[in-house]
Amino acid sequence: MNAYIRSVGAFIPEKRVTNDDLSKVMDTSDEWIKSHTGIENRHVAEIGVTTADLATKAAKVALERAGLTAEDLDMIILTTATPDYIGFPATACIVQDKLGATNAGAFDMVAGCTGFIYAIDNAKNMIIAGTAKNVLVVGSEVLTQVSNMQDRDTAVLFGDGSGAVIISESLDDESYMEHAILKSDGSGAEVLMRKSGGIKYPFVDGETTFNDTALYMEGQAVYKFAVKVNTELIKELIERSNLTINDISWIIPHQANMRILQAAAKRLKIPIEKFYFNLMEYANTSSASIPIAMNEAYEKGKIKKGDKILLTGFGAGLTYGGTIINW
Ligand code: UT7
User: Fold this and answer.
1) Which atom of ligand 1 is nearest to the CA of 37?
2) How many other C-beta atoms can be found within 10 angstroms of the C-beta atom of residue 317?
3) pLDDT (tens digit, 9 = 90+) per residue, 119-134?
4) Cis before 89 (ω within 30)
5) Any idea what the Cα angle at residue 9 is, between residues 323 and 88, rounded to 5°?
6) Taking all residues of the chain, what is their mean pLDDT, rounded to a whole number?
7) Ligand 1 atom 43: residue of nearest CA
8) Which residue of 110, 189, 199, 254 sits 20 to 30 Å from the alpha carbon of 320, by its own alpha carbon?
């Protein structure tokens, strides 16, 4: 028995902020952002709209396309760096309630921007083990609400959105998920983090500021890590399955920075056209970026049954991972 991606969906908030808009509120420019990252716009959730709200909307699209109701779900796995609450309750439980998924368990999975890869592999394993028939995996983020607007190094990079898939038992030998490669290097934990508010750096009444709890990143350290692991993952996934790059229809990577992917493509001698990008429009949406890109490719008719789609992710933890989806 195996599992396959039965459907995909996404929800992106309507409000769109351009690089020029940002250059009016901080010392940056369209030219810098575009040339250093490839990002042109990002979408922003209105104040009061939460990670669970976006996730619920993406999930509804995926459910409808799967021809399932919320009651058909056995499990909801939500990945996010921006949960509705710190620690607990899980944002997945809020989504379970909003959907009316009365038969589903629900939990959050924390693996930074690699969360979606970790979650779909766990969903696949639940189906193979027989503990679930239909699993909703949803990556959802409201990163603009944890961005430090005084830190131009990070504030220009992130956007909000959600992407979801339904994973069910494979119906044939053609559509299935391969085992993922899932890795971590916790020695890099502090190069990409939200520092304060947890147990290590607790919130101190009257002292902790918003910016202490905001997203912090050492960009160059993450950049070097990202180029290295993307290169390794793509090579290992292709070799492990005895494939060549010509067998892969699309590489859909975590959408962080065009330059990271160009560097990986160059090292591997893979044409950049193999990579599916939409970070120009949505910026980095962390664990939502891969399903958002996958949904867009699907909606544009760029993915068809039988295609092999290679996914790679990297991010906070540090974590990284990838897999091949036989669509
Ligand atoms: O999903 C999580 C994974 N995260 C990532 O993948 C991010 C990985 N890192 C990166 O993508 C890149 O390191 C960045 C895009 C974050 C930064 O690009 P960079 O080429 O590494 O720039 P830098 O940090 O070396 O900064 C170069 C210059 C600095 O000025 P000086 O010191 O040379 O005068 C920065 O102050 O660019 C300046 N700078 C900016 N200028 C205008 C940094 N951010 C900005 C900005 N606008 N927004």
Assistant:
1) 15
2) 22
3) 999 999 999 999 999 9
4) yes
5) 80
6) 97
7) 153
8) 199
Q: CB under 8 Å to 124, separation ≥6 — which residues? A: 2, 3, 167, 177, 179
Domains of the chain, earliest start first:
3-172 (3.40.47.10), 181-326 (3.40.47.10)
pLDDT 10s digits, 280-290: 999 999 999 99
Atom of ligand 1 nearest to the CA of 153: 44
Mean pLDDT in residue range 84-99: 97
- Residue 256: pLDDT band (50, 70, 90) is very high
The yes-or-no answer on residue 211 being catalytic is: no
Residue 64: Cβ within 10 Å count: 13
pLDDT digit string (tens) for 10-57?
Answer: 999 999 999 999 999 999 999 999 999 999 999 999 999 999 999 999
- Tokens representing 46? 């209105």
SS3 324: strand
Joined tokens for residue 221: 């350290």
Maximum C-alpha span of the chain = 60
